[in-house]
């Protein structure tokens, strides 16, 4: 991906850094390693996923205390349907339970929950609970928690392109006028700042079809720590790594300093 950025975009891409100082406004996480953690503990894979929910709870708490504005978690990708049917079924049950139990906790803490992705593939009972959870927390004005479920970055771009194609077909826009800002406006989380920091646990160093448009200028952090073992100390390591980086967006270090001091 290119590191270049137009002059018109300078203020937009620098704004998260200027507002947040050493703390990112938006953190996105691929929570990898639940199954491997369970295997190492000689436990069933679903035990690893349940332990992973506990880690989510702690990371949400840490973000709220640090006043991180947005946390986006990759819970279930569009590719995860390929897993063994029994595991998928157990994951659906866990998701259903968490949407009830954890959402109540989120609501008490003034956290707004948003589920991004293609909900239509989920069983009806889960679709109804997603709607109920989002309605319950819709007016909360604290931190925003995005949970990506049946989400894929390619799917996100395709659905945005389809919306723009429909507008062009209706004569509302000219195809030649489509810009990156117009595409961004049709994506999931369009009204939120793009992630400043991306974290992937579990040792893999790829983004795996997660927010592939929104991560264009994001700082990437990879750790071998498996998600169930990702504690406050590990989270602090990621934040410390972020705070020590200079985000240049194609500029020189000197240019960035001048823009910040302007």
Automatic annotation (TrEMBL):
<dbReference type="GO" id="GO:0016094">
    <property type="term" value="P:polyprenol biosynthetic process"/>
</dbReference>
<dbReference type="GO" id="GO:0005829">
    <property type="term" value="C:cytosol"/>
</dbReference>
<keyword id="KW-0808">Transferase</keyword>
<dbReference type="InterPro" id="IPR036424">
    <property type="entry name" value="UPP_synth-like_sf"/>
</dbReference>
<dbReference type="InterPro" id="IPR001441">
    <property type="entry name" value="UPP_synth-like"/>
</dbReference>
<dbReference type="Pfam" id="PF01255">
    <property type="entry name" value="Prenyltransf"/>
</dbReference>
<dbReference type="GO" id="GO:0000287">
    <property type="term" value="F:magnesium ion binding"/>
</dbReference>
<protein>
    <submittedName>
        <fullName>Undecaprenyl diphosphate synthase</fullName>
        <ecNumber>2.5.1.31</ecNumber>
    </submittedName>
</protein>
<dbReference type="InterPro" id="IPR018520">
    <property type="entry name" value="UPP_synth-like_CS"/>
</dbReference>
<dbReference type="GO" id="GO:0008834">
    <property type="term" value="F:ditrans,polycis-undecaprenyl-diphosphate synthase [(2E,6E)-farnesyl-diphosphate specific] activity"/>
</dbReference>
């Amino acid at each position: 991906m290119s590191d270049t950025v137009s002059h018109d975009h300078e203020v937009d891409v620098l704004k998260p850094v200027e507002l947040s100082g050493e703390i990112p406004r938006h953190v996105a996480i691929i929570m990898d390693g639940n199954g491997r953690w369970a295997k190492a503990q000689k436990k069933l894979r679903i035990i690893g996923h349940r332990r992973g929910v506990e880690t989510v709870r702690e990371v949400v708490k840490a973000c709220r205390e640090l006043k991180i504005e947005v946390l986006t978690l990759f819970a279930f990708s569009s590719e995860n349907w390929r897993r063994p049917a029994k595991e998928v079924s157990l994951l659906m049950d866990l998701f259903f339970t968490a949407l009830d139990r954890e959402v109540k906790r989120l609501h008490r803490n003034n956290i707004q929950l948003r589920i991004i992705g293609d909900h239509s593939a989920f069983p009806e009972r889960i679709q109804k609970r997603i709607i109920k959870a989002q309605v319950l927390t819709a007016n909360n004005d604290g931190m925003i928690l995005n949970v990506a479920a049946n989400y894929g970055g390619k799917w996100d771009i395709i659905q945005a392109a389809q919306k723009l194609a429909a507008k062009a077909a209706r004569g509302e826009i000219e195809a030649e006028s489509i810009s990156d800002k117009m595409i961004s406006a049709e994506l999931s989380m369009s009204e939120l700042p793009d992630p400043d920091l991306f974290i992937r646990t579990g040792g893999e160093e790829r983004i795996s079809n997660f927010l592939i448009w929104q991560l264009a200028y994001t700082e990437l952090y990879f750790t071998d720590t498996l998600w169930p073992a990702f504690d406050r100390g590990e989270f602090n390591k990621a934040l410390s790594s972020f705070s020590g980086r200079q985000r240049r967006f194609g500029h020189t270090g000197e240019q960035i300093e001048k823009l910040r001091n302007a």
